[in-house]
Amino acid sequence: MASERARERDRGRSAGDGPARSVVSNLIWGKMTSSLLSTTLGLGVADVLGDEARTAADVAERCGTLPDPTLRLLRALAALGLLTEEKAGVFRLTPAGALLRNDNPDGMSTLVRIYTDPVLNAAWERLDHSLRTGLPSFDEVFGRDYFTHLKENPDVSAEFNQAMGQSTRFVAESVPDRYDFSRFRTVVDMGGGDGTLLAGILRAVPDLRGVVYDSPEGLAQAPALLEAAGVADRCTLETGDFFTSAPKGGDLYLLKSILHDWNDSQCAAILSGIRRVIPDGGRVLVIDPVLADVVDPATVRLHHYLSDLNMLVNAGGRERTEQDFRALFAGAGFALSAITPLADPSPLSLVEAVPA
Fold first, then answer.
1. Are residues 174 and 260 in the same domain?
2. Residue 190 has what pLDDT?
3. Residues 51 and 189 in one domain
4. What does pLDDT average to over the chain?
5. Phi, psi of 339, deg, nearest 5
6. 141 within some domain
7. 209 and 303: one domain?
8. Cβ proximity of 289 and 259 under 8 Å
9. Catalytic residue of the set 129, 260, 303, 304
10. Are the C-beta atoms of 318 and 263 separated by less than 8 Å?
11. Name one GO molecular function term (predicted).
């Protein structure tokens, strides 16, 4: 009888049931993976391993943990592709794992720390609130918006600036190869933070001058970075509120990872401020993801859609399609003129607009 019931159950399963279950099974581990990364950073595992292959016992001693649980942690990191197990119980960082080292100038440790921060992720626990109201659940949970949280916590703000710099470094190196900056005189980086993007552009285009425009908190690390990049003599810093004004004198205005932070009316305020000061031959260059009109599983970038929801719950912003950008620009007196995807692995595109 039991075997007959089993055969009946098997007949009721579709041919795709196995793969379908695998999709769901793989997804449920996401939060655990984030916790694993956060703990790995907190213990300094990548820094302990450095350029060496070490035993789990050695790593445990240096991290102040027990050997057996540490072995299990290192095996999980190896399964994720962050380590290789060269022989039983001996581990070495992979190139991906090396990005977690705090001494890696091209690393992602601070970026990972920000995105695995319990404060940032607390808003995700109330995703339902954002879905029902269209408002950021961060404000509901903490009684203030995320950027006020940064302003009230200078250490967190400095880490956030560093994380944004880490995420921008690859873009700063690749953008000059995908866009002709030599036709401009002065580029204004709106919300430019520590100046990572503008420094990369100025290094690539020696005759160009620049302005980094941000809040005092956003600009806190910019002087040292621009000096170290050797472009401080061609770049000025201006503090202000990009919802109310934009600096005069630019013929190119950059908005990297800015518009996706904000809702349409807030973006309209930012773009309208630029429209009031931009010359007729000027350009706006937005650097953000561009969502496909229809999700195609063959080409989809999951990051785009998770980022879209992250903007919703933490800032009230959104990622946008080409048509969304066209409408946004038109409402502020601009016309979309070109979209240029950046080279892999960047998920971003250059979205250019001209005064209409």
1. yes
2. 97
3. no
4. 92
5. -130, 125
6. no
7. yes
8. no
9. 260
10. yes
11. O-methyltransferase activity
CA distance 147 to 140: 14
- Give the Cα separation of 350 and 259 in Å (integer): 13
Q: How far apart are CA 266 and CA 330, in angstroms?
A: 14
Backbone torsions φ then ψ of 236, nearest 5 degrees: -115, 160
136 found inside a domain: no
Whole-angstrom distance, CA of residue 193 vs CA of residue 168: 10
Distance CA 97, CA 127 (A): 30
Q: How far apart are CA 128 and CA 163, in angstroms?
A: 27
Say what the pTM is.
Answer: 0.85
> Helix %, strand %, coil % for the chain, to 5?
55, 15, 30
Mean pLDDT of 239-260: 96
What is the C-alpha to C-alpha distance for residues 199 and 209, in angstroms, rounded to an integer? 10
Range of the domain at 265: 153-355
Is 304 labeled as catalytic in the residue annotation? no
Domain CATH number, residue 313: 3.40.50.150
Q: Which residue has the tokens 């599983």?
A: 297
Alpha carbon separation from 318 to 7, 67, 124, 301 (Å, rounded): 48, 44, 15, 15
Please return the burial class of 137, using the count of CB atoms within 10 Å of its CB with bins 0-12, 13-18 and 19+: buried
- Chosen domain end from 74, 100, 126: 100
255 membership: H or E segment, kind and range: strand 252-256
**Assigned domain for 58 exists:** yes
Cβ proximity of 257 and 190 under 8 Å = no
- Cβ-contact 305, 280 below 8 angstroms: no
Q: Is residue 158 part of a domain?
A: yes
* Cα–Cα dist 123/314, whole Å: 6
Domains of the chain: total: 2
Domain match, 159 and 94 both: no
Distance from the first to the final alpha carbon of the chain? 76
Query: Considering 39, 68, 100, which residue would you say is the last residue of a domain?
Result: 100
CATH of the domain at 65: 1.10.10.10
Give tens-digit pLDDT for 155-204: 888 888 888 887 788 888 889 999 999 999 999 999 999 999 999 999 99
Q: Pairing mode, if any, of strands 209-214 and 186-190?
A: parallel
